[in-house]
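Lab notebook, bench 4. The sequencing result for the construct came back, and we need a structural model before the next group meeting so we can plan mutations. Quick request posted to the team channel:

Model the 3D structure of this chain.
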Amino acid sequence: MSDRVSVDPVIVTCAVRYALGRRSYMPGLMRDALIDAWGDLGDQRANIVEMIERHLDESDPGEWVYNEPWVEFLRTRSEGGRVTGRPVVYVAGPYSQGDPAENVATAVRVASLLMDRGWAWPLVPHLSHLWHMIAPRPHRDWIDLDLALLARCDGLVRLPGASAGADGEVDWAVEHGVPVHRLPLAWSSTTALVQLRSWLDGLAVGTEVER
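Done. Here's the predicted structure in token form:
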């Protein structure tokens, strides 16, 4: 005889709505309950994820300590008791044109968002910036390394900004059948993130996506 208690998906959705924004232990409790019941929530799962993502978009940075359980849930959300697979995406964008340090920071911000939301595993070639400072290598070595890594990715996210190197990576990806998604200048806007999420979902389930 099972000790598992049946759950009402609508009631769970209402409980999540109530817990969002609470500055207490409630988000942590709700996260644990969601992970346990995720396989029983059916169509409400999409509504729950959308509510959490919207809440995180609208939250102030100072609320991070209370939002951490929601971020953790998005990282580890389950489908039928299994953690959902994430595509591996290559983050291509400006590096040497402009301020290299700021370009690296932008790439890391985008990559962090992908990981925080649980949308994808990002590969950030800009991080060779530090490697090159410690042990410089010929420019060609970095190009060859980047393309070798790109060949192993499920998709490429092109950051906004002029970059001959990133354009070359996009051309290589298109030629070799690696899907490409171009982020607009306002890449953190709700519209841009919805489009990015939809594209990544297509990669995750292996559907045909626009290149």
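Residues 100-116 form the longest helix (17 residues).
Will bring this to the meeting.
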